[in-house]
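The authors assume throughout that readers already know how a fold can be written as discrete tokens. For illustration, here is how one protein appears when written out as sequence plus structure tokens:
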Amino acid sequence: MTGLVTKQSDVYSFGMVLFEVLCSKLCTVTDKDGGFMFDAQTVKDLYTNNKLDEIIDRDLRKQMNMTALRKFSAIAYRCLLDRKDRPLMDVVKNELEETLKIEGEVSKKKLDAETSKSLPGAHRFSLAEINHATDEFAPKNKLTQGGFGGAFRGNISGKEVVVWRMTKEKGPRIQTFYDLLSVCNHVNFISLGYCDEEEEKILVYEQMTHGASLYDCLFRHTNFIPRLSVEQRLEICIGVAKGLSHLHSLTNTIILKPHVKTANVYLDRNLVPKITSFNSFNFDVRPSESSWSLERVYLAPERFIPNYPYSPKVDVYAFGVVLLEVLLEKSLMILPAFIMPGQLHMFVKLNIYGECIRECESVIRLCLEHDPARRPFMNEVVDRLEHALQLQKQWIGGT
């Protein structure tokens, strides 16, 4: 031993780090039973005797492809060899990238194979059906183009649809597609299905040109659109909140920007709410139902800051406005500053229980906080509104 620190010393140290990752243990640490000392010689002996599985993290063994796992282990082992036999870091880097590629390809194949099972509500269209619906993606049918793909007008079985065709570049688009597909299959989002064929990643959304929106039900009462009860209003808002909570849990929330407003929530025959529009892809291509002055009320304060990045808390703010409109039965152009804390019940004409309206008011005020960091997460909103609904039902049942 010379005592000199060399580049190959770094390779050795990195090899120990790789084994720490594999085993979820720190090196030179004895386990709680005193039966295992994690050091370089021990892991090398286990590797050469094909017993490394004894110390590899159990959860990692379940999750990782075996070929990739073996390749990763081999790289780590080679880093611990005698100095002259250790690989250069460039070689280690390249082999780790190859391992990642193997793992990614296998994971995608598993995901592709399980898609139809895990998404029973999402219809799988053939590429031939999509081509027919869009006239082979004719330029005349193109609606918009974004960084991740383009939207096309189409018609399937007499239904007007928007077909979103993802770009064919590799990388993040794959996860984006499956995140979008997850939204596609959620009960509170409008969708028809998808196409995953011949390298194409395509989503199909129904254009809701017919039917009643939440806006219609709140502000356009007719014989065909009866007035909603308090319980129905809360159930609708809970559905919208659940849809947003699901959306915010996805990997690529940053490119999935729902346009939350009452006109973009459609109700099916069972009054189940369906969120219809995404700003970033302009899926809702119908003429705007509101002027810019009406749109502004849904915009969080930070949306008026130039180049301010989108965050889920923008949707939380817009949801707070929707909930307020649902309770006040008013289409708002500005937020009613005249409503003081604890006084919302004075302006609500619905037959609503006091404790219920207080809970709703608390949710609204939190959602409309000026500071995004003080706004709640949508899963918290769901819990509180479900509690408010329970209070209302108990009160109705006891009256």
